[in-house]
Amino acid sequence: MPPSPRYGLYVHLPFCLYRCSYCAFVSTSDLTVAAEVVEATATEICRHRRRRVLTTLYLGGGTPSLIAPELLEKLFAAIASTFTVEPAAEVTLEANPEDVTPAALAAWRKLGVTRLSLGVQALNDSVLRLLERRHDARRARAAVGSALAAGFSVSVDLMLALPRLSREAVEEEVREVVALGPQHVSVYLLEVDKPHRLAVLARERPELFPGEDEAARSYLAAARVLTGAGFFHYEVSNFARPGFRARHNLRTWRQRPLLAAGVAAHGHGGCVRWGNLEDPAAYARAVARGERPLAWRLVLSEDELEREKVMLGLRLAEGVDWATARAVARRLPAFAQRLDDFLSLGLARRGNGRLRLSRRGWLVSSELLQALW
Amino acid sequence: MTQDRVRNFCIIAHIDHGKSTLADRLLERTGALSQREMMEQVLDSMDLERERGITIKAHVVSLTYAARDGHVYLLNLIDTPGHVDFSYEVSRSLAACEGALLVVDASQGVEAQTLANAYLAVEQGLEIIPVLNKIDLPQADPVRVKEQIEHVVGLDASGSLAISAKTGEGVEEVLEALVTRVPPPQGDPSAPLRALVFDASYDAYRGVRCLVRVVDGCLRRGERVRFLASGRDAEVEAVGALTPRPVQQEELGTGEVGFLFAGIKDIHQVRIGDTLTDARRPADTPLPGFRDAKPMVFAGLYPVDAAQFEELRDALAKLALNDSAFTFEADTSQALGFGFRCGFLGLLHMEIVQERLEREFHLELITTAPNVAYRVLTKSGQVVEVENPAQLPDPGRIAAIEEPVIIATILTPEEYLGAVLKLVESRRGQQARFEHLGGGRVLLEYRLPLAEVVLDFYDKLKSSSRGYASFDYHLAGYQEADLVKLDILVNGEPVDALALIVHRASAYPRARTLAGKLKEMIPRQLFEVVIQAAIDKRVIARETVKPLRKNVIAKCYGGDITRKRKLLERQKEGKKRLKRLGRVDIPQDAFLAVLKVET
Fold it and tell me: Which of A205, A152, A145 is CA-nearest to residue A180?
C-alpha cells in the first residue's frame, strides 16, 4: 500500500498590536474582531476534507502569540477534529518576545506546539526602538531562554542591514544569538524599498543605513559565524542545527502540498495556488455564508510549475536537479544566458546531478531568477 | 494678368516678430479669405508649424488687390521657412520674388534672424521694405529700431512703415507699398519657358506638387516640360494659383507664381532650385543658383522595440516623400540593433523629424547623439565622407580630416557679453565681427565648427544670456581640424553607438566626463564593468562599475511564492530597457550620455 500523502497546514492569524515599521505582511491591529475571525478560521478548517494527515502545522501572522489561549484552543480543536496530526508533527507558532510568559508557554505546550519562531530581530535596544518593536534586548534574551527551558524548539528571526549596525556589531550579535542556544536562526536583510516608515527614513537619512556592499558583508559574516557554530545554511536566509530544519517551510520550497486557512492565507498543492480574502470582515462574511473565502486561485502550467521549482529549489542548499534546470534553460534563452554567467563566475555550481547557488550567488540571485519569468 | 500688374514678394522676420500675423492681415484685407475662414495664422498648416510658430514648408498665396491707382494687382505672397536649417530653401523662395517685407518688432529691434534673412534678400537683389511692427506696444521704439536697421542691417530705413499687424494699423500702407515700390517681374513672355521650382511636396492622390515661379514664357496645361538639372520630362497635368485654396488655371503667365502637377510620384525626382522649361523648345541656360540641399547633421534612429523596425522604415519613407532634404538608410549597431542612419539639414530639422515620428507614427525611438558629416582625406589621396563616427578610417590611413564650419551671427545685450564670449571661445570660435549697436546691444559674428553647435550650443547660449541673445548661422564650407575619434569600450569591447569625433584639445576632458557619466548610468552587474575611453587604442580615461554584491534576500514562505514571482516579473520588466552588449547590460539612456556631458 502506498504511503498516504502528508500535508502541511498554514494558519494565518493577522493580528498585531502594532504594525511594525518594516512589515509587509497582512495584519490588522483591530483586536476586537479577533474572536470572530479566529472562530471563522476554525469553521474554515472544519470544512477541509476529513482525516488528511498533517505532518507540519504553522501558525503565522500577524502575531499569533497575541491570541488568547482559549481562542487558540478552538483552532486546535478544529484542527484535531478535521485532520490526523502525526505524533511527531512539527507545530510552530510565531511569537513576539514580549508575549513569551510562563503562562503562555504552558498553554502553548498544552495545545501541542513544539516549536516557537521568535521575532527577536535585534539585540540592540536603539535598533529595536527604531523598528518600533515592543520588546527590548533583555526581554528577547529571556524569551529565548525560557522557551528553550520549557522544551520548545526555538527559531530566532534576525534582521540584518539595519540602521546603525556595523558588520562587527552584526557578528557580535549573531554570536550572542548562538550563545542563547536556539536550534534555528532566520536571517533577513532589511528591505527598505517597500512603502513603510523605514523607507522614509532611508530616503531622508541614507547615511544611517549600511550600503549594498556593507549589507552583503554583514550577511556573509552572519553566515560565517553561524556555520562556524555548527549551523547548516540550508536556505538563503535559514540556518539550522542538524535535525532542526523548518520542515514546514521546506514543504513550500520543495513544492509539497500545503493547506491553508485564515485571512489572507495562501496554500498550494500540485499545480494549484490560491489565496484567501485579505479583509478580515469580508473573510468572516464569506465563511459565515458557507462559501470558500477565496480571493484568487491560479493553476500553473507544467512549464510554470517547472520554473517555480527552479526558483524555489535554488533558494535551498540542496539546489534543484540539473535536468529540470536544463530543461527550463532550453526554453528560456535569457535564463540560459544568466545561468551561464552564474556558472562561469562561480555564483552557481553543478554537481551530483544538481544545480546549486553559492552563498554569494544567493546574494544576487534575483539577477538569475528574474530571467525565469 | 500682365506682368506689370504682378508683384511677387515675401515676408522675412525674426521669430515672433509678427510675420504670420501680418500675412493673415494681408489675406483678410484683400478678401482672400472670409472672416469665417480665417483661422489663426493660416499659412502654417502643419500642427507642428503652428505650435512652434515656425514655417517648415514654403507656401504661396495669391491675393488680388485694388490699389489706389484704380488698377487691380495680383500680389503673390511667398512664405518661406525662416529657420537656418532651411536656408537653401529660403534662398530659392527668395529667388522667386522681387521684393521683401522686412518685419522687425519695434519693441525688440533687430535680431540675428532679421540680419541673416535680410542679407539673403539683399544677395538676391530684392527690393526691401522695412516694416516696424507692434507699434501699438507701449515699449515700442520705432526711432531706435529704424536706426538699427540703417546701421546694423545697412538698409535705407527712411521709407519704413510703422504698423501694428495685430490692430491692423498701417496694413493698407503695406499693400500700397508693395504695389508702388516692389518692381514688377521683368521676364520675356515670348522667350522659351523658364520657371523656377522653389518647393515640392507630396500629395497622396496626385503625386508631387511643385511650387513654381514662371520667369520667362508661359506654363500651360497639357504641355511637355523638362526639368533641366535632372533632365526629366513630364506632362503638365494641372497648373493653378493658390488663393490660398488651389484654383486650376489654363496657364501661369510670365512672372506668375503657382502650383504644378506633372504626374511625378517620387519627390526625390524633383529638386528644389531646378529650372522647368519647354521640352520641345528648351531654354539654353538654367536659372542661376541650383544646388542640392545636402544633409549636414546625422544621427542614428533605432526603435526601442526591435519589432517596430518595419514600422519605422515605413514612417521614414512617408516623411521622406515630403522632404527631399531628409535622407535615411538602414544601419546596424551592435549596441542598438537594427535602425537607420538619418541625415538632416540641421538640428531643428532633426527635432521635427523625431517629433513627427513619435507623434504622428507613435514610434518610440532611441536617437544617438547627432554628429556632422566629416570629410576625410586619406593618405592614398581619396576623399571619404564620414557620416558616422564609428566609420572613421583607421588613423594610420588618414591624411587630414575636415569639418564643416559656420558663420554664426549672435546679438546679445551687453550685460551677457562676457558669458556669451566665453561660450563661443570654448567652442573653438574665431571672431569675425564685433560691434556695439547702441541701446546696450552687441553684434557678434563668429566662425565656428558646426560640430560645436549641434549638441547644445543654442541652449547654452540662451541660458548664458537669460534667453536674450539671438542666434543664426549659415554654412561656410569645410576646414581642416585636429580631430580624433574617441572610442568608448565596455569591458574591452568598443561600443559603436557611443563613438564620437572630437577635437584633440578637448578629448581628455570629454573622455573623463563621459566615462564618469556612463559609470553613473550603468547599473552594477554580476561582474566588474570597466568603461574606457580611448583614442586610437590608447586608453585616456577609465572608470569601473563595481560588481553587484546583493539585490534582495527576502523571506519566501508559503504565501510569498506568488508575490515573489510577481516581484521578479516586475524587476524583469524594468530590465527590458537595458541593451545587452556582450555580457553587460547597458541602459538605453546611456547612449545619450554624450549629450549630457558638459563641455
Answer: A145
